[in-house]
Amino acid sequence: MEALGMSEILALAVPSDLFPARMQMALSLGWHIVVACFGVGFPAMVVFAEWRSHPRGGKDSDKDMDALAHTWAKAMGVLFAVGAVSGTILSFEMGMLWPGLMARFGQIYGFPFTLEGFAFFIESIFVGVYLYGWNRLPPRIHLLSGLPMIAAGVAGAFFVVAANGWMNTPTGFEIRNGQVVNTDPWAAMFNPSTASQSVHMILAAVMVTGFGVASVYAVGMLRGRSDRYHRIGLLVPLTVAAVAAPIQIGVGDWIANVVAKYQPGKLAAMEGLYQSGTGVPLSMGGIYVDDRLVGAIEIPYGLSLLIHHDPNGFVAGLDRVPPGLRPPVNVTHLSYNVMVSIGFALLGLAAWLAWAWWRRRDIPRTPWFLRAVALSGLAAVVALEAGWVATEVGRQPWIVYEIQLTRDAVSTAPGLRFGFYLVLAVYIVLTVMTAYVLRRLTGAHEASIAPQEPELEEQRVGGGT
Amino acid sequence: MTAAEAVLAIMWVGLTTYALFGGADFGAGFWDLLAGGTERGRAPRRLIEHSIGPVWEANHVWLIFVLVVLWTSFPPAFAAIASTLYIPLTLAALGMIARGAAFAFRHSTDQLAFQRLFGASFAFSSVTTPFFLGTIAGAVASGRVPPGIAAGDVITSWLNPTSMLGGVIAVGACAYLAAVYLCSDAQQHHDLSLLAYFRARAIVIALLLGGIALVGIAVLRADAPQLFNGLISRGLPLILASVAAGIGSILLLARRRPGLARVAGALAVTAVIWGWAVAQYPYLLQPELTVQAAAAPETTLRAMLISLVVGAALVVPSLVFLFTLFQRSHSETSQTAKH
Ligand code: HDD
Ligand code: HEM
Ligand code: HEM
């Protein structure tokens, strides 16, 4: 009796928890995705470093490469454990926050998540094998055990992004009399957005990992530690990221074309475009008020050129979307601009490296280069978050594009917002702790740090020293 | 057997595996919590930590597996459970974060204060998480989760006698499994004092669980009559099997056969989980939503079955590889570190 009264009070106090629910989802996803990038990008880099460290052609093993491989593997192990935890919360939240989505579409939308579950299963098993088995398996077998880890990380990202792509361009079912019928989960998984989005995401993960790791060694070198260990620690990940950067811009063009075709309203919001028309300019920056973009820099014919590769191509604007169904323009437009600007800035950094390498087989000598690399990791993360914000906010007010409204999917349970406050507090603590542990990794490649590693004799938890 | 039943059975295998492996991990944290001060608790804590090692994450993914299979194959049931029970789910999730983070960071600091903090949050959340998961099981089993979105009471659905019973039994079962497993680990290490330590605890917790189960009969009869009727009719053979296996594991422990006791202990827990399923069948959410009514269309179920078979073919050998690698080096270190 008394408890019933309590939930009634909660219901009275909180008419709608849509906003906190969105914020909770955004926070958890935005947090998970950063860590998850390392789960996609790190395995290949670690295995590469280990492979290069093995003795070959009569030469001894490469001590610096070996030390790097070990340090990176530890960081990978810690981030993997944190990613597993934050991902688990996400899967709870799908149902706690968006039961309307899951109840109706779980039968289609859920399928790639099942495959993702298997991919993560395999990844977590082989991260365990790889870290725990380092000195227990023969070197060749150990190296081979890294391969399933790499494949599973990439496959997992593909499946998850396929699920997200389905929210953008839902396929694989029909709706008759309000009922979802004729479901085809395979068709749903290979919806029109899956290919471009997953390639873009996997490249983004490679860039975040590459620039992110390189920036750590750039900071070290700026502090005067320019031994060989630091130089290859910078060069290997930076080269990987620099190769990905130009490809990413090409893929960005592809993905923008897919959005223009299937989600014209979202593209209009990303570009801040109200008036449909031909010969549309590309607008950067600016603020959208009263159906106009104020203070933007315009490149004539730019948008038509980008979308149709034709200066007179037709681009649909927000005027085609009924007022109640338009996404928030400013957030979408600005995050989109941020992502694209950073994409080009990182391309510039990659070109700088390529130029210096071509001329002198060395990284540029000026400390400005190291400063730029030191910033690049953060920049890549900002681009990643901005891209996701543009994608997700640009889909609003739909949770499933033109099929289901976000507000129809949200849970009606009373008191939902307190969950958000709690999750917010927990993520702040988790962020601080993760940063602290990763800091300890620099220069501690002997100690056993990752949770999957066999423990050294002098270490133990809770036991004191 | 229909496709829906086949998927449900596979999901239940996943849940059982989570209980047996993930549950033992939780239980290890329970014993960590009770191990006493730094000095006194050192030896058991070392064994506990040693036994979790690199398999923790793999054990944990079973839960994810159950969730994704549930939401894809029985979407309305998942939506109803997650929305009505969002409070215990959030609390269990926070426990998982605390536990996972403490575990992930445990090696990373040598400062005593931090080590204590990580140790404490690991131990504490190892008890709260299975408790809240148990209340969720109790809520579903006692028919307090009606189909529909947040259609049940968000408070009383999990604050009720059956849920409390579920929570306590979950914590107890985890502790029991862990103690039995740790006995056999201690034996592998030829550590007789630790073997005696965990054997005493395993026997005590098994007797306690038996007592709780007796009280539970009365609770279920009054609070969850439909489940109770299922348990004493169709579910009875499994419940009796669980009792027999439980008693068997105590006797085996008393006779210093921890390896066999481990098997018996796992059987006892498995039988209870399947007893619940049999008692509740054909309802996913009592008293209205049946398995067939909640099931996704055939096309989805068929795709699920295909991917479950292919997935198992990939995952099972990999898991076996990880466990043998771990077990082998485990016994190697215990050979050299024998004391
Ligand atoms: C390192 C990160 C990064 C970089 C440098 C870029 N992007 Fe990006 N972008 C992402 C990371 C990202 C992402 C991983 O955050 C998104 C969110 C959803 C997705 O699939 O990828 C994304 C989404 C996204 C979308 C929306 C897709 C949708 O809504 O379905 C478009 C149109 C672009 N990007 C276009 C570009 C262009 C033209 C870039 C060139 C400069 C670019 N991106 C660089
Ligand atoms: C595959 C991955 C993802 C899936 C399946 C997914 C799914 C969802 C769902 C179900 C919602 C709630 C409904 C809605 O508001 O439309 C949502 C909202 C949101 N997500 Fe994602 N998401 C994914 C990745 C991300 C990432 C990586 C970010 C990073 C920041 C992100 C940012 C957001 C934001 C900002 C919202 C709130 C949008 C708003 O309400 O304005 N998402 N997402
Ligand atoms: C674009 C978006 C995402 C990417 C690229 C991604 C990638 C990953 C990766 C690589 C992992 C392995 C752990 C790690 O390396 O950190 C992971 C873990 C996990 N993710 Fe995500 N994820 C994304 C979004 C989501 C979403 C939307 C959900 C659920 C709704 C989710 C659920 C999980 C779960 C449950 C785990 C834990 C699995 C385990 O224990 O191994 N992820 N994710």
Write structural notes for this entry.
The complex is a heterodimer of chains A (465) and B (339). By secondary structure, chain A is mainly alpha-helical. The relative contact order of chain A is 0.13. Helices cover 69% and strands 6% of the residues of chain A. In chain A, a hairpin with a 3-residue loop joins strand 9 (398-400) and strand 10 (404-405). A two-stranded antiparallel sheet of chain A has the order 1-2. Chain B has a two-stranded antiparallel ribbon. The chains are: A mainly alpha (465), B mainly alpha (339). Chains A and B meet through helix 1, helix 3, helix 4 and helix 14 of A and helix 2, helix 3, helix 4, helix 5 and helix 6 of B. One protoporphyrin IX containing FE (HEM) sits between chains A (29, 32-33, 35-36, 39-40, 79-80, 83-84, 87-88, 90-91, 94, 120, 123-124, 153, 156-157, 160-161, 201) and B (57, 60-61, 64).
Key structural traits:
A: 465 residues, two-stranded antiparallel sheet, globular, disordered C terminus, B: 339 residues, mainly alpha, 13 helices, binds CIS-heme D hydroxychlorin gamma-spirolactone
SSE topology:
The complex is a heterodimer of chains A (465) and B (339).
Chain A: H1 2-13, H2 18-53, H3 63-97, H4 99-132, H5 139-168, E1 174-176, E2 179-181, H6 185-189, H7 194-222, H8 228-262, H9 264-271, E3 277-278, E4 282-284, E5 287-289, E6 292-294, E7 297-299, H10 302-308, E8 314-315, H11 329-360, H12 367-395, E9 398-400, E10 404-405, H13 406-409, H14 416-441
Antiparallel strand pairs in A: 1-2, 3-8, 4-7, 5-6, 9-10
Helix pairs in contact in A: 2-3, 2-5, 2-7, 2-12, 2-14, 3-4, 3-8, 3-14, 4-5, 5-7, 7-8, 7-12, 8-9, 8-11, 9-11, 9-12, 11-12
Chain B: H1 3-33, H2 42-52, H3 56-73, H4 75-84, H5 86-105, H6 112-141, H7 161-188, H8 192-223, H9 225-232, H10 236-254, H11 258-280, E1 283-285, E2 289-290, H12 291-294, H13 298-336
Antiparallel strand pairs in B: 1-2
Helix pairs in contact in B: 1-2, 1-3, 1-6, 1-7, 1-11, 1-13, 3-4, 3-13, 5-6, 6-7, 7-8, 7-11, 8-9, 8-10, 9-11, 10-11
The complex binds CIS-heme D hydroxychlorin gamma-spirolactone and protoporphyrin IX containing FE (HEM) (2 copies).
